[in-house]
Known about the structure:
Distance between the termini: 31 Å
Number of strands: 19
Structural class: mainly beta
CATH architecture: Beta Barrel
Oligomer: single chain
CATH superfamily: TonB-dependent receptor, beta-barrel domain
Strand content: over 45%
Order of helices and strands: HHEEEEEEEEEEEEEEEEEEE
Helix content: under 10%
Radius of gyration: 23 Å
Number of helices: 2
CATH class: Mainly Beta
Amino acid sequence: xxxxxxxxxxxxxxxxxxxxxxxxxxxxxxxxxxxxxxxxxxxxxxxxxxxxxxxxxxxxxxxxxxxxxxxxxxxxxxxxxxxxxxxxxxxxxxxxxxxxxxxxxxxxxxxxxxxxxxxxxxxxxxxxxxxxxxxxxxxxxxxxxxxxxxxxxxxxxxxxxxxxxxxxxxxxxxxxxxxxxxxxxxxxxxxxxxxxxxxxxxxxxxxxxxxxxxxxxxxxxxxxxxxxxxxxxxxxxxxxxxxxxxxxxxxxxxxxxxxxxxxxxxxxxxxxxxxxxxxxxxxxxxxxxxxxxxxxxxxxxxxxxxxxxxxxxxxxxxxxxxxxxxxxxxxxxxxxxxxxxxxxxxxxxxxxxxxxxxxxxxxxxxxxxxxxxxxxxxxxxxxxxxxxxxxxxxxxxxxx
Length: 400
């Protein structure tokens, strides 16, 4: 362990001293319109509840190294990107849960003067990051999402877009289990999800459009043992674009129906998505957002839970090198099926909230250091799922 700590501390020291190792001429690597951005980050984090347990917490220190590289090509409304990012995590005490996360993001975006657009992208992740708030942490999984969009601008005001997404989700092994006698086969939740979308945009102002959208979804589980396949349809209306010179937004709402093959309850209800970003001043950025939707569940006999979320954040630049930020969120998860808890049947409902504050100092344009504190809590009417978690982290990152 001493050798590992020494290596990480040395890496932090070298990065922090980078302003002396590299001159100001160090910049982006490019070959014509192809830009290459190597990146590296080092972080040390203290977490007082690494397994998100209730009363029986277990703390640890986690060291992370985050290497990556971005390739970006842009020319005449046509762009290509290929990004790779890894996160190598090593615990001081719980070394059985050391991990290596990998993410690859690739896309081609073509915009033609005729009004035709074409987009194809793929995001691959091999990670232990939580997929939803209900899961235990440290659940290894592989997911791949492919995305194709084709659009056409009929007139200066009217355009349409059709899209197709395909997601593959495979859990690799069982997560950490507070009770070793409980066998959790997360492979029962391996699935494919397909989403076909059609959207019509009508521009009402210079940079603001109304939208109408139809979505059709298929959910196909590899094993229909604990979960059922489903089909669903949803309709949306909304507005998107630059609402004011300083504000951009996507606001849409609608209704969704989801029909499951098994005997468990189907889902039908209102859905919405809100994303608003407002630049109050040159140095202050504020964002708010929220959503309501059905999310596939891994809890007991529930096919899904209804997730309602809200969030807000701000970022303030203090002087030429210092940026402070703060954010908070609240989420509610409601489960439709009654399950046994504390000797009686009831439907589980969780309230989750969290807050984060941070400080970033830009040593150079390409080199920065940051400090973060994060708090998260879950309060459930099934109190076995309550937890609170505090994390403090210090990191250094460089993007060339």
